[in-house]
Amino acid sequence: MRKILLSIVKNKCPKCLKGNFFIYSNPYYNCFFHRGEILKKCSNCNFEYELEPGFFWGSMYVNYALSVFFGIIIFFVSYFILKIESIIFIIILISLGLLLLIPFTYYLGRLIWLNFFA
Ligand SMILES: [Zn+2]
Question: Residue 32: pLDDT above 90?
Fold first, then answer.
């Protein structure tokens, strides 16, 4: 469990925890300047990250779950803590929040998906 968490949090290979998975560990930098590309294989142990063709399409399920999770958090914060009562404004806040989080959920989604199967 600790190994999985370290791999996800530190952007490392799930097998050896030494080589990077994404080129850069900053999801926003990686998304905007490198189109979210991942490395083909681990630079340390040569583990191929794409286990089969189209393997990372499945990470959309994780991405979706993360987006729902963050959407619920934004709702609770805006409704219960910030005391915003306009549901339209809350929906706008959730939409903007999820738009800003796209690189982060993309990044986490792929790392979590790979760790399910590696
Ligand atoms: Zn490795």
Answer: no
